[in-house]
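thought: user wants a sequence for this fold. calling inverse folding tool.
action: design(structure=
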């Protein structure tokens, strides 16, 4: 089989119509194939890789890894040499542009001037040399060369994740590529990398006991594999692991040496100034407190030692000072003292760099990370040198706290972002499964790029596994942001990722599975399903999902996860055996484990919440809850002991930090064996056990409702529903409840509206369920709206509630560059309306009606009330800059425009609830003076506000945790 990868052409642009290109190749093969076709291996024993012996050590590493990659595909290994006279057959030549070796094949005058001045860029070019062909892979620097080599590896079918996720390589009898002359772009972000953090639960014990027992820690062997992965992802930076379980990066001599070989830039986290790991390297016994006010001399010497040691390495120095490990600065009282102390720290750290670095201090990469309380100190007036990069941070849950204003964006040092895909801390950890929504990552990082935060992007990946896809996405964005300009591209990116791993036929269905996995976790992460918190740690509680109302939130979520499991298992049985280890790691384990965790708590909920009705089935639900706990343990054992022959033993921990959410649930209850009745009945949205009034049905609405019949005692009961009108559709009308069989039954009720109209549109009806000898009556109401206007986006009150998704406006008005735009794939509704541009100034609140863009919504109500409530739901993002809030203007009918703000401050309880549910809310009282048509307008004030959905609550009723279907007029 031949690989034909059509790459970008010389003018730096991607070929827009590859189908047309292939058609031209077919018509005019001599015109294209002779100059662009390169045969790496066609069954002949002679083919070579030539690299520059005077070049970087990374050239040698890249050449060897490429030879291994070719062997994985063909089972034939090319000759790898530095001697041009020893090459045989077609040859891949690897080196830097300015080297003597490359100049033999590519003349400097033939290269675009722009390309020659780019960093970390590469070219691919096929040239003829007598009877053989040469494929030149040349970089503008060593990393650029490596990127060019590993791009070639991907082209022949070797995934960057061949080792870290065991993505198999498809064997081929020959390897032939189509290679247009290609010049890469310069990376979008200069420093792109990962932070290995909270490694206690996976990466460190796995390295210690399984992969690198000779060191007993994360050492050079482990880092070599990590660095190789970074280069294959076209990344270049590491913040090394730094928890107490791990020795400092510089403790093992081989670690920095390995980074130098792989040309990886070493940095450190927000709490580790001057490349020091305080957790491991600061010994309080002889050195005193880590306090720059009381112990300046020792702290200064401590930093000085590391700066001397690292003065010639490729590094980014973190400036500033916090506590030993992710805590506030020691010894300071109040923000003014913190600022003054930090100002002195910065001055002395710069002095160290100026004294010992081989570069001018302004040429030494330096970063100041405004994490947690440091942002407050910075905003209090801290002065930073112009060349220092300000690294903005998210709030640990994926929402960037703020970005640079116009003045900060113009700084020479630029801006960066430190972003979390894993976190330990309040309000709750999420270190187990990687569930940060790709669309959220794309939205937040695009916002950062637009605001000139493009100097350094660091992703906290925790243990690295199972954050594989999010890491790929983050690095691809950092390397080439232009592809992600359109939010829809995330879907294509995910599909391509899984197509490359499991074949094109399976790429889309697997991507759809993972997309739904992220969607369900966006509503509530698996780690948050205990409704507990940490720091301080609290006990688990019942969830906010209800089984009694709004279509039964609990069973709806269980059904969603079970459908996802079914799809996952179906594909697992369809894919070849060789791909199943990779599938288990990338798809099967995260999906199944998330489902099991949800069902563990949701069945616990059903047991405890149905206990109030003395339902016999609560025993079954208790057992199911415990069964799913056991299922998590079982599938995790499989990850550690069976997958890939035990390669990942110790990598997956099902209970990081042993928080209560991971425990086997305790479910204690008492069922009254002498309950007054053997069976019971309850209806959806009932206010009490005896309230047998179904929610109203609205003409042409697809909404169904339900009632439950269930055993309260271990007996057998016959049931039936009598006198059912012809226009009503019931899922069942009779049956038996038995203590050892079916102990409960849900009956769904739907209306055949065509038949209903044929019998003169009755407004009321009743059902007559019979349980044993006992008869019941369920009342029903049927309602209609008669509207003069028609339109797709008209909404009506139904059962005291109007539900509108923000994208479904009835009118939209833009004002020049200011506008509301749809962001697909994100939010509860999966389509947000966000205010743009993301770089603008806030709008004048006094001129909103004249100058602000707005969204308009049309709705009709049947209630007349002074106590209605408008509930607006948005993404819990933070202000773009220190000049912004998260404000919008809200106008109800012809009333005044009210300014409301979604902004939260610090780690308030409101912020905690916002990030736990990925939703911010504002509540606005409104008055319905006349039933009928109402108009709602949402005006832009601050850019970046992302509106999700809208409720109008007219009956002071408790609202659901999950999103309800829209109440459209049909």
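)
observation: tool returned 970 residues.
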């Amino acid at each position: 089989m031949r690989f034909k990868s059509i790459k970008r052409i010389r003018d730096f642009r991607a070929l827009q119509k590859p189908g047309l290109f292939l058609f031209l190749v077919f018509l005019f093969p001599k015109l294209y194939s002779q100059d662009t076709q390169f045969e790496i291996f066609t069954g002949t024993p002679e083919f070579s890789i030539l690299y520059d012996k005077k070049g970087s050590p990374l050239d040698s590493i890249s050449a060897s890894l490429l030879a291994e990659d070719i062997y994985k595909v063909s089972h034939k290994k090319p000759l790898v040499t530095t001697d041009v006279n020893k090459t045989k057959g077609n040859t891949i030549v690897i080196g830097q542009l300015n080297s003597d070796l490359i100049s033999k094949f590519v003349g400097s005058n033939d290269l675009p001037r722009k390309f020659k001045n780019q960093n970390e860029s590469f070219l691919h070019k096929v040239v003829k040399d007598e009877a053989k062909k040469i494929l030149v892979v040349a970089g503008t620097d060593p990393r650029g060369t490596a990127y060019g080599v590993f791009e070639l590896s991907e082209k022949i079918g070797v995934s960057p994740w061949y080792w870290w996720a065991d993505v198999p390589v498809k064997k081929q009898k020959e390897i032939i590529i189509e290679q247009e002359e290609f010049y890469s772009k310069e990376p979008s972000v200069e420093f792109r990398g990962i932070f290995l953090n909270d490694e206690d639960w996976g990466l460190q014990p796995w390295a210690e006991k399984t992969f690198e027992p000779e060191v007993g820690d994360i050492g050079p062997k482990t880092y070599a594999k990590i660095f190789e992965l970074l280069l294959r992802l076209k990344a270049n930076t590491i913040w090394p692991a730094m928890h107490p379980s791990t020795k400092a990066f510089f403790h093992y001599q081989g670690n920095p040496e390995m980074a130098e070989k792989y040309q990886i830039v070493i940095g450190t986290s927000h709490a580790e100034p001057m490349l020091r790991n305080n957790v491991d390297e600061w010994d309080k016994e002889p050195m005193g407190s880590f306090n720059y006010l009381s112990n300046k001399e020792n702290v200064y010497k401590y930093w000085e030692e590391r700066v001397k040691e690292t003065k010639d390495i490729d590094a980014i120095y973190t400036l500033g000072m916090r506590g030993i490990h992710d805590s506030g600065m020691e010894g300071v009282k109040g923000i003014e003292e913190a600022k003054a102390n930090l100002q002195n720290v910065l001055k002395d750290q710069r002095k160290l760099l100026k004294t010992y670095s081989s570069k001018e201090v302004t040429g030494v990469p330096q970063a100041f990370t405004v994490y947690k309380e440091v942002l407050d100190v910075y905003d209090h007036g801290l002065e930073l040198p112009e060349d220092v990069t300000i690294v903005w941070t998210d709030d640990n849950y994926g929402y960037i706290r703020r970005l640079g204003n116009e003045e900060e964006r113009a700084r020479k040092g630029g801006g960066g972002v430190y972003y979390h895909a894993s976190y330990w801390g309040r309000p709750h950890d999420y270190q187990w499964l990687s569930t940060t929504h790709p669309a959220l990552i794309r939205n937040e990082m695009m916002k950062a790029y637009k605001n000139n935060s493009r100097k350094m992007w660091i992703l906290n990946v925790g243990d690295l596994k199972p954050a594989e896809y999010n890491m790929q996405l983050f690095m691809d964005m950092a390397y080439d942001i232009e592809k992600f300009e359109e939010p829809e591209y995330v879907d294509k990116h995910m599909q391509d990722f899984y197509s490359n791993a499991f074949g094109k036929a399976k790429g889309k269905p697997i991507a759809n599975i993972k997309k739904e996995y992220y969607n369900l976790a966006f509503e509530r992460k698996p780690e948050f399903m205990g409704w507990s918190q940490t720091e301080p740690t609290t006990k688990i509680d019942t969830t906010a999902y209800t089984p009694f109302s709004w279509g039964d939130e609990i069973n709806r979520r269980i059904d969603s996860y079970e459908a996802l499991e079914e799809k996952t298992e179906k594909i697992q049985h369809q894919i070849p055996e060789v791909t199943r280890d990779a599938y288990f790691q990338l798809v099967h384990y995260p999906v199944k484990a998330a489902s099991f965790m949800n069902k563990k708590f949701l069945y616990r909920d059903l047991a405890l919440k149905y206990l109030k009705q003395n339902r016999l089935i609560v025993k079954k639900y208790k057992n199911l809850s415990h069964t799913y706990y056991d299922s998590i343990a079982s599938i995790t054992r499989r990850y550690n002991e069976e997958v890939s022959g035990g390669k990942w033993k110790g990598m997956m921990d099902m209970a990081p930090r042993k928080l209560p959410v991971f425990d086997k649930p305790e479910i204690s209850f008492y069922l009254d064996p002498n309950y007054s009745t053997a069976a019971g009945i309850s209806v959806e949205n009932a206010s009490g056990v005896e309230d047998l009034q179904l929610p109203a049905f609205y003409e042409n609405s697809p909404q169904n409702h339900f009632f439950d019949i269930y055993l309260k005692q271990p007996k057998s009961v016959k049931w039936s529903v009598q006198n059912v009108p012809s226009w009503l559709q019931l899922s069942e009308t009779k049956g038996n409840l038995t203590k050892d069989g079916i102990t409960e039954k849900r009956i769904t009720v739907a209306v055949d509206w065509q038949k209903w109209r044929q019998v003169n549109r009755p407004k009321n009806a009743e059902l007559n369920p019979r349980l044993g000898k006992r008869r019941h009556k369920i009342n029903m109401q049927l309602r209609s709206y008669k509207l003069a206007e028609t339109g797709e986006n008209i909404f009506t009150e139904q059962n005291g509630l109007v539900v509108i998704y923000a994208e479904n406006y009835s009118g939209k008005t833009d004002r020049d560059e200011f506008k509301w735009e749809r962001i697909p794939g994100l939010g509860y509704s999966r389509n947000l309306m966000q205010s743009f541009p993301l770089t603008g100034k806030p709008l004048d609140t006094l001129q909103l009606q004249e100058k602000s863009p707005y969204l308009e919504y049309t709705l009709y109500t049947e209630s007349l009330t002074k106590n209605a409530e408008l509930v607006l739901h948005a993404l819990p993002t933070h202000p773009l800059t220190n000049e912004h809030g998260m404000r919008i203007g809200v106008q109800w009918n012809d009333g005044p425009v009210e300014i409301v703000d979604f902004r939260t401050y610090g780690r308030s309880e409101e912020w905690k609830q916002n990030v736990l549910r990925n939703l911010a809310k504002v509540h606005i009282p409104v008055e319905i003076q006349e039933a009928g048509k109402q108009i709602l307008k949402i005006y832009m004030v601050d850019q970046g506000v992302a509106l999700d959905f809208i409720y109008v609550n007219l009956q002071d009723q408790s609202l659901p945790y999950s999103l309800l279907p829209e109440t459209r007029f049909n």
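thought: summarizing for user.
answer: Here is the designed sequence. The chain has 25 helices and 38 strands.
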